[in-house]
Amino acid sequence: MIECGQITASGEGRARRYFGAITPADASTLDTGTDSFPSFIPLSADSRDILVYINQPTEARKPVGYQRDFLGAYQPNETSYLSESLRRQLHRMGKTTDAVEPAGTYSRAVLNRLLIDLSWASSHLEGNTYSRLDTRELIEHGMAARGKAAIETQMILNHKTAIELLVENIESAEFNRYTLMNLHSALAENLLPNPADEGRIRQHAVDIGKSTYRPLSTPHQIEDALEVLLNKANQISDPFEQSFFMMVHLPYLQPFADINKRTSRLAANLPLFRANLCPLTFLDVPEQAYSRATLGVYEMTRVELLRDLYLWAYERSTQEYVAIKQDLAEPDPLRLTWRDFIKTTIREVVTHPELDPLACIQRAVAEHVSETEQPEVQALIVEELRRLQEGVLARYGLRPSEFNLWKSSHGN
């Protein structure tokens, strides 16, 4: 009956269960309405098989726990979730320059656009009702949208902070506990019932809504599995394979009390930022497609549906950034060389409103910059200070209250 397609089977041995088959054609129309998988996303036969199973009611799907062999069987640079041909395709789509640039050059160049796109799209996957325009107003001008819940505003702002955290620390950021915990903390700020869970390994069991999957519940087990996960992630040489590996295994482990998928979406961008590839912004990714793809990982430890969605989503993201890539000016080498000094000086000026800004800048430049470069570096700092506004304060480690006090002190 399986061979004839009349039934499907899941599990092995005594755990094997049989279900009435649903044809691939039916999979795209099952659970009709807003809860169906979008037909415009191309799927492989393997992905359609996953949909057949996932589209069944939860009571017809087998309860499963965390499968250690799923992570254990993955051998970095030997196992490949993304085939070599698929990786080549992704590299062609995501390439931003022929020159060898310092890590993070491209993500910094498009940061303003990236903050809006990724903050909005990732939040939208969590049910956030902010529009893209609302998100832009919030990020660029600090204006919260009318009629929106505070939790939605907080979610957007947390994404902005977390993205800036990655981009501005790209030289030191890697897949380790420090980066992951602080990334989660930025995304979770003021959103969890217990603030102590921000940036901390989960201390209790969790259930996954609309899923038969039950993650690990013991903190010690979660800690051990996370260490293995991070060690393997750091060994992966290809940025896309590394990115996709994090999208698969971080939500599957569920190391945090909540906000695991958001953390994985931003973590998946870290290798792309570092390699100066186009970011994966998740623009136009339907929530129902993303949730089904992750269910395929949770309940079947199969990645094909998420892989097909990843490819479609990345192509969509790169299409949005083609015009930016074509028009993007080359980074100013002087600004790149003195980037950290410029930020430190701006922060020093703003946090000391009692001092004359120009005198403060001149003194700092005279102490740290060679005489031949002093005029240009000073001009750069003055220009940065002139453009300073609420939407870029985190870049300099400044709070709005510090900025407002400085503005009032200098009649701005």
Can you walk me through this structure?
There is one protein chain. This protein is mostly helical and 412 residues long. Helices cover 55% and strands 3% of the residues. The protein is built from 20 helices and 4 strands. The protein has a two-stranded antiparallel ribbon with strand order 1-2. Strands 3-4 form a two-stranded parallel ribbon. A hairpin with a 6-residue loop joins strand 1 and strand 2. Helix 6 crosses helix 7 and helix 6 packs across helix 8. The protein starts with 6 loop residues before the first strand and ends with a helix. About 3% of the residues have low confidence.
Summarize the model shown:
The chain is an all-alpha fold. It contains 20 helices and 4 strands.
Task: Jot down its keywords.
elongated; 412 residues; 4 strands; mainly alpha; two-stranded parallel ribbon; 3% strand
Mean pLDDT: 89
Amino- and carboxy-terminal Cα gap: 77 Å
Radius of gyration: 24 Å
Based on DSSP secondary structure assignment, what is the total number of beta strands? 4
